[in-house]
Please model this.
Amino acid sequence: MQQIAAAAGVSVTTVSHTLSGKRPVNPATAERIQKLITEFEYVPDSGAQRLKSGRSGMIGLAVPDISHWYFGRIARGVEEVADELDYGLIICSTSNSDPRREKRYFNLLRTRSIEGLIYTASREISASDELVRVSGNSPIVFADEKVDTLPDVPSVTSSNFVGAQMLGRHLRDLGHTRAVIIAGFAGLHSTIERTRAIKESFPNALTLHGDFELKSGYDLVSDLLAHEVRFTALFGCNDYMAIGAMTRLREAGLRVPEDVSVVGFDDVDMAAIVTPGLTTVRQDMAEIGRRSAHLLIAGLHAGGFDAVESESLPTELILRGSTGPAPR
Model:
């Protein structure tokens, strides 16, 4: 900065005011300084700027597994908005909410290395959890999952109940009366809402819990078959478990949808290319990421989250070949 000031024949303070825009500078002088900044390829010291402003210009995103297709879409949405609004982004993979890893990332909030955090839960949050303590005085927005123990923290989710309700009514309208539910982690808000919605149409549906992965759906159907549970409709709490279930049904000689209709939730890319195509509910994970970032940054700019309200995004029923009339 001193070299630029000397070349422009002005004080270092005048160069600083030109860079910050906080004080008026003669237009001709400012133009001369800007040309020299370009010529010298000067980049302001972000560390010094942070010390002056008390802000890092960084936000964080904590997801259970960044390599997972689902969370990658959320991350892409957050990144788009962070870039648009000139924030840096640190993405933290919590290994399915490993407390040790989470504490490390929460410490970034405490030390203000990041200004706020977008958090995606993969398990039930208890009242004694570290997240509960951090959320009391740190800027946090939940993406994808509400946390029932922290109702005052803003969140962006899909309309899980409405989406699953559409699936349940679709299967019921096809004449099915015996259904099973392959659900996700028991304490998650999305699992609770989707299960509750399906049971509106199938109140006696047997519910088994898995971990949202392909193998989980496969193994749970193996258990159902081993115990000779009779069903003509299967609801997977996400597409991966539904596709794993379809694979095991096919191995057992059961046809989809002639013998068993199968539905999922999410509309992942694979849902459209498996045979038969998977009937599911589409939710926009990238938009969840975008809206979460907007909420977080809006709260940061406002100096608080009192006026920031949670959002529930619409879902869409996608009909494909995995559902059909109940067998006679």
In short: The CA atoms of residues 127 and 149 lie 7 Å apart. Residues 56-158+285-315 form a domain with the Rossmann fold fold (CATH 3.40.50.2300).
